[in-house]
Amino acid sequence: MEVTARAPGKIILAGEHAVVHGYTAVASSIDLYTVATLRLRPDGEDTINLQLKDVGLDFSWPIQKIKEVVAHLGSPFSSTPTSCSLEIIKSLTALVDEQSFPEARIGLASGVCAFLWLYTSILGFKPATVIVTSQLPVGAGLGSSAAYCVTLSAALLAFSDSVKVDMSQKGWFIFEEAEVELLNKWAFEGEKIIHGKPSGVDNSVSTFGNMIKFKSGSMTRIDSNMPLRMLITNTKVGRDTKALVANVSSRKSKHPEVMGSVLNAIEFISEEWSNIIQSHALDDLSLAANEERLIELMEMNQGLLLSIGVSHAAIETVLQTTMKYKLASKLTGAGGGGCVLTFLPIQLSEAIVDKVVGELESFGFQCFAAGIGGKGVQISFDSSS
């Protein structure tokens, strides 16, 4: 028996950076997924194996070795999500380092530690192989680490005593509501190991799907009544999120009244985004009118983000390219590189999309056309393995 789980990535539609200062942001799932397959091994075998297919990394730990490392700290096995102590993180990091982790992939080490923590906390020391693949680029602001933690948590919980699932079900299905809440809490603990102090937005969007509004630590799930599609362009320019956030805070302290007005304007954009996507368009004409409003909001949002210093030359190249085709774009996430969203109206021809993609890719960018606001984490069982 094996279980496969998949969890979507995320984008910020409106409100990035402002959300750090207590204003509203709107985030959405996208139909690009991270997938984890967990296959339990016979009890006679004594290893836990993790294969990260996209980056060519394969890890294997003797269960006895893991037990020795964490035993003196108390077994992490728990039916309720608990935070990983700094002492255990150090012990798990030592386990990962023993695997001759390649220098070029050192940034992924915390993700492997998160795997070991989630695995031993949820399943204990059962032997198994876990294979992870992903459509999400790492470090591009699309919630790749959250989708990783969510999909791992889902696969592990499916074989735990913490949830009740019918393994005879066919196709993709979701956990019960209370179980999804539990899963989200576990994924958040994994995110903490990777990021230190995550907001919880990314894992929540990946877990529950669709869209959420987030303000001052409070999340509200919202249902979109509009079919939305975005072109996501990965500039492949790395950025330092902490530095970008710090620079915005510095501007706010130097120019409190100006920055207050800018952040207030971003707040209004987020609220209007939320209202428009929840409204019911009665016909194609009203749908087109709503699309036009969203396009204008995106343009204004990007202008405000530019004014607070989080754009980048690569982002501006994307904006200028899509503008030639009368398409609106804005950065998503921290900015300073990363990804850019381009709104694709429902009536836009695929020929135009192909032209835009071709031109953007000529700059060395990577493009994905993605549906917005789809389902969250799902699982599927295969009893033939």
TrEMBL record:
One of its GO terms (biological process) is isoprenoid biosynthetic process. SUPFAM superfamilies: GHMP Kinase, C-terminal domain, Ribosomal protein S5 domain 2-like. GO terms for cellular component: cytoplasm. It is an enzyme of class 2 (transferase). Its EC number is 2.7.1.36. InterPro entries: GHMP_kinase_C_dom, GHMP_kinase_C_sf, GHMP_kinase_N_dom, GHMP_knse_ATP-bd_CS, Mev_gal_kin, Ribosomal_Su5_D2-typ_SF, Ribsml_uS5_D2-typ_fold_subgr. Pathway: Isoprenoid biosynthesis; isopentenyl diphosphate biosynthesis via mevalonate pathway; isopentenyl diphosphate from (R)-mevalonate: step 1/3. Residues 291-344 form the GHMP kinase C-terminal domain. Coiled coil: none annotated. Pfam families: GHMP_kinases_C, GHMP_kinases_N. This is Mevalonate kinase.
